[in-house]
Amino acid sequence: MPLKSSYSDQLKKTDQSLIALLSDRISLLAASESPSLNEQLAGVAPLLAEAGISESVWAGVLKSCHAPLIPKSATNHLSARQITIIGGHGRMGRLFKEQLQQVGHNVSILEPEDWEYADQLLSQTELVLVSVPIESTVDVIKRAAKYLAPNTALCDITSVKTQPTQAMLEHHSGPVMGLHPMFGPNIKSFLGQKVVVCPGRNDNSFQWLLDFLKSQGGELIVCTPEEHDQMMVIIQATQHFCRFSLGVFLAQTRVDIEESLTMSTPNYRQEIDIIKRLFSQNPHLCVDIMLATEERCDAIRSLANTYSRLAKLVLRKDRNALIQEFENTQSFFEEKNNTLLQPLNTTAKTSIQRDFKPQIHTNISI
Q: Which of 84, 80, 79 is nearest to 147 (CA)?
């Protein structure tokens, strides 16, 4: 019993010190323009690895430190906007509906069965947000554009940007912008979440929406639709295929996942968690992300060829060749690479600059 009491006292003192340090951290963030969450995470990655602390755990701490800094009154005096979300009953549509309604905006929903009311739902609204499956996005944009007033702002939130943005610009004469939320519908807020912004036309018409996302702790990243789609080949399509493949493999081999977790490394637990989240989603969404463009399909085929080539080296037990592959790749990651996409200042309320040129490698070898 004395040992237990001593342990509790020591733990309590450690917690008190930790709370005090977190309080200091929040004060430091509030006193100056803080770096992005990604920058803060990257700065301590070696320390986390040495201490055996998962990056996801530390990312949660960082987000919690930012939460008190979101101005609670930032949206108290906003003018209520009239918004229609096409596909608002979908999971991502519901998320945006809830977040926008929480700050006082009036949000209407248009679903497939509601097109007979499209004139009243679309013609008088200030913003139309298209949140439908990838394969339906362009057709929905064409159909909706017929009802829009010239000053209605039109944007989509699908994970492909070139074709939807072109369709919006072609079929609607008013403000156009492409958005891609880099998160799933299970989040509780926009705090620490990235949203890619692809300007189209009359960007200032969307400034209130971008200011809202920033006020909620979101991080905005600007690029062209073409640059976005090129990067999503790697960021989304190939990653989905990797995890989709591993999940299928684990199911085929009938691995006891729970038992494997009892003796797993932190990285394995994190990967299993990601795979579980992937397979908890709508299968159509996952598959559509991989099949969305020919570039994505080509990249996945190239990745599969790489898997096959490396697997042959393993089967031949070609140790020297595998080491050479490792060292070649090691050299690639050791090279100093510039940030691919520059985040917008998350505190300033500056309008989007149309001449913004993100630093990006435009010739990706896939």
A: 84
Task: Output the CA–CA distances (angstroms, integers) from residue 219 to 96, 178, 201, 215, in the order listed.
Answer: 16, 15, 21, 10
Residue in 201, 193, 204 with CA at minimum distance from that of residue 349: 204
CA distance 34 to 350: 17
List CB contacts of 210: < 8 A, sequence separation 6 or more: 197, 220, 344, 352
On whether the CB atoms of residues 169 and 201 are closer than 8 A, the answer is: yes
- H or E element that contains 108: strand 106-110
Is the Cβ–Cβ distance between 223 and 196 less than 8 Å?
A: yes
Q: For residue 335, give Cα distances in angstroms to 231, 328, 332, 366.
A: 19, 11, 6, 19
Residue 355 has pLDDT above 50, yes or no: no
Distance, CA of 31 to CA of 65 (rounded, Å) = 13
- Rounded Cα distance, 310 and 186, in Å: 36
Number of H helices, E strands in the chain: 16, 7
In 3D, which of 165, 308, 300 has the Cα closest to residue 239? Answer: 300
Distance from CA of residue 199 to its chain's centroid? 18
341 CB-near residues (< 8 Å, 6+ apart): 196, 221, 222, 223, 227, 231, 358, 359, 360
Mean predicted confidence (pLDDT) in 138-146: 97
Angle between helices 55-66 and 2-31 (to 10 degrees): 60
pTM equals 0.74
HSE-CB for 251 with a 13 A CA cutoff: 9
> Which is higher by pLDDT, 34 or 86?
86
Dist. CA 188–CA 12, nearest whole Å? 30
Residue type, 236: Q
C-alpha angle with apex 319: 318 to 323, nearest 5 degrees?
A: 120
